[in-house]
Amino acid sequence: MELTSSTDNPTNEPWTRILANTSYGGRLVVKLPAGTLLFVHLKDKQLIRHKKRWSQVMYMYYLLGHRIMDSHLSVEDRQLQADNTYILAIDGDSKFEPEAVIKLLHLMNTKSDIGCACGRIHPIGEGVMVWYQKFEYAIAHWFQKAAEHVFGCVLCAPGCFSLFRASALMDDNIMHKYTKTAFEPRHFVQYDQGEDRWLSTLMLKQGYRIEYAAGADAETYAPEGFDEFFNQRRRWTPSSVANTLDLLADYKLACQNNSSISKLYIFYQMLVIGFSLLGPAIIFTMLVYAQVAAFGMDSLRVLVYNAVPVCIFIFSCFVFDSSVQLFFAKISSITYAFIMLAVLIATTQQVVLETIFSPTSMFVLAMVLIFLFASFIHPKEFSNILYGSIFFLMIPSTYVFLSLYSLINLNVINWGTREAVAKATGKAAASDKVGEKWVKRFGFDNEDSVIYRMLPCLRPPQPSSENVRALERKMERTERLLKTLQKDNDNTNAYDAVSMLNIIAEEERKLAGKKSEVIPFRTIDLSNKTNPSGLTMDTLTQTRRGLWMDCEYLQSCDRGKLKQSEERFWDQLIDKYLRPIESTPKEQSNIASGLAGLRNRIAFSIIILNGLLVLAIFLLQSHKDVLSIKYIPYEGFQWTKMNETTGQFGKTTEALKVDPLGMGIIFFLMGILIVQTLGMIIHRLNTLVESLHEVSEMEEVHFESSTIKSKSTVLNEARQMIDAKNYEQAHGADGYVRNGKMEQKCLNNVLYKLEREDDNKQIPRRSKRII
């Protein structure tokens, strides 16, 4: 409202602002100076579901179902409109330039099977955690997203900046399945924790591509605090793993429907998800043996020293509150940041002693060179390589403690954390009073106590006198209104109640010292008191729903009303998909128990697998003299080795001893890195070609007055664009055909299938359903 005030208007003309009461809450429509209409939908969580996924369902069904499906156009024209309608998904804290959206549109127009295009996300903010995320986002886009784009499809279109094709969202098993309510424990993790990732998975299974445009830059504010960062990744990690496993489980369907997904690409994703699950064990053993090399200690002792804090953290994640977990993770992260300096020294020492031809040295040097090469071919983002030092110091924190924190807190979801479930089941009351019991036990609650006077936190909060007076006025007015509503529910009483609402509003204006701008809660003719037949209890209910529009700062807005067809659409949509979910404490307790059981099964399985891997590597290293592979890079190879009897370093021609499991892990990680590097190079070349093509197109444009078309010519061409006959001539009578391995012709045509469904069922035209 402040941004659309008359003082900010460059034309010094009053802004057109209209308020409307809706089935989901309210709507504010603002006409901007250029004539663009800005729609602000105000949701009331008591009338409609309030989480992000349901907000997406709300606007997608409105834009795609009501605005396209229920239009007066023919099937062909609606199909054309759906193919050329795009939805830009962006977070409220993201920033972008118009050129970035144009690049996404250009990418979407190149191929008809692209269902979504996403851009390069740059985290912004201040602090060490933001520096870490700058490097993390950089390598994720440079390597992972580029490789997915080249060798298959991008698995996740981030909700902070992505462009969706309308016809893709309206296809089978996408929009309709996206409205599915979570009932099973795994559904809460997959559906509600990462709705963007789930929507991407549905699109991939249906046969649409998701591509990555490196030139479409957008900025988003990243978590600046340690706790905020850990909680964000706690939501992201389980959903990402769950959706990836879901795609791998249905790989046959994905490969059949999507021509861009091959079995080789599925195998690549299996390797990536395998590293994600076994990453804590790999990083943990790397830390152990780096400390052995740096401090010259016994490997068993170092293993125990490092296992104790990890086991304590695992125990705290199962037992204690999240604040305790995050505190322990913070302390451990700082401690291991110093240990990583020892890892750096030990790795450098190993490279010097064993030369660059040892497997470990080749892997480390190759990784450093690849990262430097990636920064050089991204010159605008070269500065992100400087934050690699922060990323290196935080490897134990993110790959060990963050992985365990996300895994063990799998059962913590947005709508019902452990604290919320405890309150629902009546268990939180006791825990909330624990502090009070200790305060009373030591007598700190006594007003004469010195500690009571010194520590204001022990005193109960005292409301301000202004808030008390405001609350008393509201309670008095509420009591007066309730007395009116308790009368007989006839028309006269409804009339009196509406009058009472306006009287209360008038009193509020007088108390505020403002002039009485009589804008009633609802435009109702109250002059005829003898025959108020138009007033019923339904009218009174609608009037009560419009109380929010009588706020003082909204008095400058006009009042509007939705069309009857749109009101009917919202009523039907809310009744079918968006009615608020009401659950009893027992139901919440059952869901919490199911999530805890899911967490226990998955967490214990992954922890045991990581523990077995750590034990296997430790045993192989302990028996390295027997269970090892002798490696000689070339004939006459020499390296430096310490003489255990003299304690001096000297040259030796002995073969290097490498345990087979460690060698396998090195090849495993190096294989993933090489594939991603090849994908990055190919993607950069494609980006370069596209940039040169855009430059050539710009040079061909001549901005001359003779090229400016008349208004009639533009309107004529616009009519031709939506002409059904021209559309059939250009695309065939079958309508939109999307290339893929599925049946061709019109089986992939969304609107044709919807029309046939209506004809077969012989039901009246729908106002909200799109699949």
Describe the protein:
Helices cover 58% and strands 10% of the residues. It is of the alpha+beta class and 771 residues long. Among the domains are: 196 residues, no CATH class; 106 residues, no CATH class; 26 residues, no CATH class. Strand 1 and strand 2 form a beta hairpin. Helix 11 crosses helix 16, helix 11 packs across helix 25 and helix 11 packs across helix 26.
Overall mean confidence score, pLDDT: 78
The CA-CA distance between the termini, in Å, is: 37 Å
Count of alpha and pi helical runs: 29
Strand content: 5-15%
* Low-pLDDT segments, ≥5 res: 415-434, 488-498, 514-533, 702-706, 724-748, 761-771
Characterize the biggest β-sheet.
Answer: 5 strands, mixed
Q: How much helical structure, as a percent, in the residues?
A: 55-70%
Q: List the quaternary state of the chains.
A: single chain
Q: What overall geometry do the principal axes of the alpha carbons give?
A: globular
Radius of gyration of CA atoms, rounded to a whole number: 32 Å
User: What's the count of strands?
Assistant: 13
Structural class: alpha+beta
Strand order of the largest sheet: 4-7-6-8-5
Question: Could you provide a short overview of the structure?
Answer:
It is found in: Cell membrane. The protein contains 29 helices and 13 strands.
Give keywords.
771 residues; alpha+beta; 5-stranded mixed β-sheet; 4-stranded mixed β-sheet; 13 strands; globular
